[in-house]
Amino acid sequence: MNDIDAINAAKTEFREGYNTADVDRLLSVFADGFADLSAGVPSFFGDEAKSVLRSRTVSLFQKYRVTLVVTIMSIRVVHNTAYDFGWHTLTLAPHHGGDPITSRRRYFELWRKGNDAKWRIELFIDNLDVPPSMPDDEIDSATVYLQCSQQ
Amino acid sequence: MVIEISCEEVWREISNYLENDVSPELRARMEAHFKGCGHCTAVLKGAGNVVQLVKAGTVFDLPDGFSSRLYKRLQDRLATKKPKSRNY
Q1: Cβ of A143 and B84 within 8 Å?
Q2: Is residue A33 within 8 Å of B38, Cβ to Cβ?
Q3: Phi, psi (degrees; rounded to nearest 5) at A116
Q4: What is the reported pTM?
Q5: Bridge partner list, A109
Q6: pLDDT tens digits for B24-41?
Q7: Which of residues 123-142 of A touch B (CB under 8 A)?
Q8: Does A69 sit within 8 Å of B87, measured CB to CB?
């Protein structure tokens, strides 16, 4: 298995960890002492990060049935380091009824290949996605904004 | 269990996918990716349209003066779309 395939497989474990509410399976993808810079919650680093992620996901799985769709835009490997980025679409269906909540986030992950040849996430960061736009529309609206702010 | 695949890998294989020249495992991974990725679905549809048009081999007769009108419109468009300077 090459490095790209190994990271694709690790991302599959990440996805299935959420979709089967298996906290250990999810945590197995993260390095000990990883940096968690998830959006909307305090950041954690070092030994605390995994404990906090465990606590957060246990609480999440108690309240919701989670469906995660992973869309990997790109994976780049440089020696024993790699990064990937893309989108996570998370749907949370409350166990006790109610409408499901769906959020789409764009993420970046830094990976490190361990001595056991397994790839694990060393840094995770994400933020809330916004609807896509064509470049010309975005440049025009930015120009209008600039002109209005200078008047 | 379907293993993840990235957009870049999908783009590399998209013509093989359209030609039915991918393994069943890769096809399943690509199809799972298309379900969640609007960008790649658009690329797939675009590539599929091109393949269909090329295979059809149909030649369309263009109206008289079409080329010169198209050329003029492109020139006009380029003239009005000069790069904008940005002051950051």
Answers
A1: yes
A2: no
A3: -85, 10
A4: 0.81
A5: A84, A124
A6: 999 999 999 999 999 999
A7: 132, 139
A8: no
